[in-house]
Amino acid sequence: MYDVERFGIINTGNPKHADIFLVTGSVNEQNISVVKQIYEQMPEPKVVVAIGICATSGGIFKECYNIMGGIDTVIPVDVYVPGCAARPEAIIDGVVKGLGVLAEKRAAMDKKPAAAAKAEIAADTKAAAKAEAQANSSEQKEAEATVAAIKEKEEA
Amino acid sequence: MSTIFFLILFPLVVALALLVLKTDAARDIIVKVSAIVIAVASIYLAFTYFGSGGKFFDFENESINYLMMGIEICLAILIFYLGIKHKKYLASVLAAIQAPLMVWFELSIGHGIHVVNNLYIDRLSIIMVLIIGIIGTLITWYSIGYMKDFQHHHHDQPDRRPLFFFLMFLFLSAMFGIVVSNNLVWLYFFWEITTLCSFFLIGFTRTKEAINNSFRALIMNLLGGLGFVLAIIVLGTMGTLELNQLLLAGMMGYDLTLPVALLAFAGITKAAQMPFNSWLLGAMVAPTPTSALLHSSTMVKAGVFLIVKLAPVLSGNLAGIMVMTVGGITFLMASFAAISQSNAKRVLAYSTVANLGLIVACGGIGTSAAVWAAVMLIIFHAVTKSLLFLCVGTAEHNIGSRDIEDMDGLFGRMPKLAAFMIVGISGMFLAPLGMLISKWAAMKAFVDSGNVLLVMMIVFGSSATLFYWTKWLGKMTAIMAKQENIQGKVHKEEWLVLTSLTVMTVVICLIFPLMSTYLVVPYLTAVYSTVGTLALSAGNMYIMSGMLAIVVLLPLLFYGKTNKRIVPIYMAGANLGDDLSFENSMHQPTSVSLKNWYMEGYFGEKKMNLIGVLTTTAVLLFTFAVLLGGVL
Amino acid sequence: MSVTVIISIVAYLILAPIAGGLLAGIDRKISARMQGRFGPPILQPFYDFFKLLEKEPITVNKVQDFYVMCFLIFIVITGCFFFAGGDLLLVIFTLTLASIFLVIAAFSSNSPYAQIGAERELLQMMAYEPMVLITAIGFYLINGSFAISEIVSSEKMGILYLPGIFLGFVFILTIKLRKSPFDLSMSHHGHQELVKGLTTEFSGKTMAVIEIAHWYENIFLLGFVYLFFVNTASWSPVLAVAVCLVTYFIEILIDNSYARMKWQIAINASWIVAITLGFVNLLVIYYVR
């Protein structure tokens, strides 16, 4: 059983509760505004993890007329998890790496007051966001032990 | 005694003056001055008799009885004529039975009975006088501005405002009469006057619906009036026509179940209990001040006043069981039905019926603790409900609708009004405000009465109450973007009245331990000689006052202050940025509209009314069958 | 106010959030194990709480934080009344007031998800309120008082007289603890149907306030279970605490065995339970007395 909650992480559908934004597909004209808005609605500090090769670079759809490419063309990405499809262990690993980035960002926030993010009004495109999944994380725990722990689990 | 006469006669004189005067300026002044005079006189009356706790007056004058009889005959003829004219023959029939019966009685049996005390005043009367004198006059004051708007909205109709104010003041006069009459014949006379005032005010707009509803109210109240007449006849044959004699005899153990049940029946019709609740719902077609004055804070209170008055002789007999069952069922069913309503006035009407049901049930239990709860309910309900009705009236004239769904984000459009309404709504069901305190006491009285069914009714009814009030509250507290403040157009008079009622709603909660100690408990001691332990110990009363202080202080200190960044709401990533619309899959903006939950399938009005009417009718029929069976 | 009252209030104020947070942590751990997972550390709820405090302060309007703060204040007051041995009905009414503040906070956002969550929360309140009141009435009938101080110092052990009411109370406890199948308005799990329902528009510190209020609330709700098992006997508090823990475990088990149900089932089931178990139990007490 793949258990991301052992790192204190819970899946939530609500950007306002989320710390880590998992995007599992490429960005196209239809969902660009949705991806942007969900990202904006997450309170700082926040981390974006691109899951799979489509989210990372656009993958085999990169050249399609409606595809913008990877999600880093729209929002800043902190962790890339390649693979088609990405393996569960890799996803968990990516999320845990994201926890590390989150801790850094939080530490940075303490130094300088967070600049208010500029609210952008969504552009003219929209679609049902098929690529939204956020993770509500917590303290960084046992980050280094991730892959090992999962391997143990599989053997057991 | 002169103050009592003043309170009955002065509004009558004012009423006649207002009927004659047609100019706005004169009317404004007269209404305002006489409102102040009446309020001051009632406070003066309260102070005069506060110390002694009450008095009987043997005022006797044969000619007054004949005068009353004459007026009754005239009114009966008027009803008879109107019934024929509008083809409402039942009203004519009832008038044709009732008046000759009464005349026959007064000329034969009644003539021989010597009534020692025609008038009286005790602490319950003082409370009622204060309610009528202060809240009633505030409502007339409010009407000045409201009726200008009303005439403006209905400019195609002739200006009937003189009639309106005539009826309002006539009604005040009759109400004062009801609460100070010891002679049942006099009480009946004033009772019938209020019925007629209500009839004319419901039919005020003269639309088909208004006329139909006014006749429904008339017929049901005449039915109650018939019960009253029969009660008087039965009591007359027993040899007394005095309320205090009736109570004394009943408490000494004489079997007075039949007349008491008949009087309670009259009270039940006037208090719009099921199966007669439909007249009060229909009465909502009248201008809103009418609803506030007649159909929530005063006239319907005449019904419960009579029942509370009779409480000592209702305790433990069949009449009492009838009254408490009818009250309990009404409370439960009306609370359920209120859930399915989106028209604010109908929600208020159902809530009124439900709360009157609670009072009636307390009266039926008849123990001192139950009567304590009933009196407290009367006081709190009168203040809070009139506030709510008047708020809805003002909202209606400014947003053009009385539908709760249209009160979306009222906080943005009319912040002051919304704040008043929030106080009113909270006052109806939330700790630590008035109605909840009384409901708490009522619940304890119900439990102590040993009637498990009644306990279940209050338990389920209370949870329904919670549901329908909070969803309304939620509609108004919703903060919506881009809203224009439109409350500048509200009349000064309306603000004054709304502010005073809001302040009163809070203040009476603060001083209710005092009211309990100095007004209600002494009344109960006078009636019951011993007063059982009250539901709320002194400690709990102080806790309530402390909580009230917190609830009042918190918003004053912290409400609406934030240094956080304000962000748009979540709409699955498709919020167009204004929080009011989202982008649909065709890239078109779609506005969001949020509706309340009415649970029609569960609490549909028709279903609830049907169940309530059938069960209460069965209870009434059963009781009277048994009682008449015992007599015959 | 006596010294014991002050001590119990202070103890509640300090210990309840700690115990409540631990309980939530154990809950998550046990739930994970029931699903064959390893689960988070026991202290995870506290980590989450402190993380929420550090988030960027955002809100959707100027008033929702006020309502949420009132929710916390009145939940704490409710618990204080309860553990100070106050009047059971007063406790219930204060709890209602607190819950109303939470509902109004959600309504105030005018967000579709939050508002549906708020309406469902109201529905849940309507569903459980009768049974809670019946519980209080049951205690009153056997002890002759609504005062909790008198109920705990009574010779009679509540459960012996109120078995039906106890079962009914445990049933609606599922709603109060926000457990499946009746976690309609919000839940700690990843149900996506209403996003996060009632709490959709709360974030950061506001969310932290809600979390801590829930910890206070849960401890106080278990206090109700405690009341059923305590009497003058010296062993009864131990038994009562044990029953509280078992009850909580059963709630976790139910939570993990059921999916979310329709609201119709929530209200039908709760009211049927109140009418059968609650009403019949009351009837029996009246009859036997």
What does this protein look like?
- The complex is a heterotrimer of chains A (156), B (632) and C (289).
- With 156 residues, chain A is of the alpha/beta class.
- Chain A has 4 helices and 7 strands, in the order E-E-E-H-E-H-E-E-H-E-H.
- Chain A has one domain: Rossmann fold (3-Layer(aba) Sandwich).
- The termini of chain A are close together.
- Chain B has one domain.
- Chain B is mostly helical.
- The longest helix of chain B has 32 residues.
- Chain C has 289 residues and is mostly helical.
- Chain C has 11 helices and 1 strand; from the N terminus they run ααβααααααααα.
- The longest helix of chain C is centred in the N-terminal third of the chain and has 32 residues.
- Chain C starts with a helix and ends with a helix.
- At the A-C interface, strand 1 of A face helix 2 of C.
Notable characteristics:
heterotrimer, A: 156 residues, alpha/beta, Rossmann fold, 5-stranded mixed beta sheet, globular, disordered C terminus, C: mainly alpha
Count of distinct strands of chain B: 5
- CATH architectural designation of chain A: 3-Layer(aba) Sandwich
> What is the CA–CA distance across the termini of chain B?
43 Å
Strand order of the largest sheet of chain B: 1-2
Shape of chain B: globular
**Tally of extended strands of chain A?**
7
Report the major sheet of chain A. Answer: 5 strands, mixed
Largest protein interface? B-C, 58 and 63 residues
Shape of chain A: globular
What is the makeup of the main sheet of chain B? 2 strands, antiparallel
SS-derived structural category of chain B: mainly alpha
Judged by helices, strands and strand pairing, the structural class of chain A is alpha/beta
Give, in order, the helices and strands of chain A: EEEHEHEEHEH
Strand content of chain B: under 5%
CATH topology of chain A: Rossmann fold
**Mean of all residue-level pLDDT scores of chain A:** 73
* End-to-end C-alpha gap of chain A: 10 Å
The helix content of chain B, as a percent range, equals over 70%
- Mean pLDDT of chain B, to the nearest integer, reads 87
Helix content of chain A: 25-40%
Low-confidence stretches of chain B: none
